Amino acid sequence: MRPGNLPLFGQDLAGVDQQGQYDFAATIVSWAALVAGLGIYAYATREGAKKRDDPEELSRFASEVLVINLASTLLAYLGLAACLLFSSKLREYGPLIWTLSSGIIFTTLGCEWLYAIHEEYRYLALRNICFQILSLILLLTYVKDKSDLLLYAWTTVAGSAGANLINFLRLRKYCTWSLTWRFSWQKHLLPILVLFANSLVNLLYVSADVAQLGVMTSDYYVGLYLVASKVTALLKQLLGAVIVVTVPRLACLYGQKGGEFFRKLARQIADLDFAPAAGAMKLLCLALVFSLLGWFYMAAVLVPARQERAALLAISIASVVNVSLNFLLIPAFKEAGAALATLLADLVTCLACYFLAKKSARLLPSGKKLASSLLDCLYATGSCWNLSVEVDGSRN
Description:
Number of strands: 0
Radius of gyration: 22 Å
């Protein structure tokens, strides 16, 4: 559940108070959602994929993971309640925070990781489209002006809650549930917490640039950087979707057929991921190549190979590099310094993941595709530089 824009509320709301209220509340809820989710999605997808051909074993595993997820969700709600109780500022946003946070429990009950285990991506896509359309209809029907902020929040929650409710009602298609607290929690918790640490460090990593820019410069430079980073993030998600949907298959191969089959498919994914990137790089900064390659090694090699600690080490090193370079470069180069710090940090992530993953699969996408992507990125960088010079010249 991410903050959205409020285009229907008009210019007064979208640009000032109500937009800020919604974004602030959504940010608080996103931290609670992070606690509720722990690293369960990645862990359950990886480990469950190895058990999907054994319904009894998968049912036992899914029941234990759901209980852990329910416990973490309860902990997240208790933490949210404590924050609202002891912070007078947060209490002002109470109704909005509780409205947005209602989606957390539905996400837990939806067990989307179980559908990922069975690679039900067509169902997930169609489900999301239907409920997003429903959410849009509710938005257009009931949200009329800036006084409807809380109602707007309910319409955004309705889409995700409905989708996850359908998930919950269909769960018995894949396994039978036997919820009990009596099982070996330690067996699951350690890898889950390591993956949670990965998510937490990654969140800090991606948000450090904006936070440091805001403290060290002004809103103007933050705005410049956010425009570029949002475009890059969107295209990274599109290109990285190939990696996400293949993790269950990679985990299954690694657990059942060994390293040779795993390396063969992983190499194919590495090539496939960078094939569309070559054309898209004309719209991106150079960092995207290293970011995608690092993401590939982390999500498609290290995590399926149960080397989540190595992934945590890689992202931690990159976070230190990113924050340190931000302190050095932002004062002199503003948003360009933050972008350069991100580029170098992504390069560090890529190299660290590559060397940490070499025991499982020492692969690279084919040299031709990688070189094509890098050359296109250099072309895009040059084009952007020329455009910047032309704009500056026209201003002068």
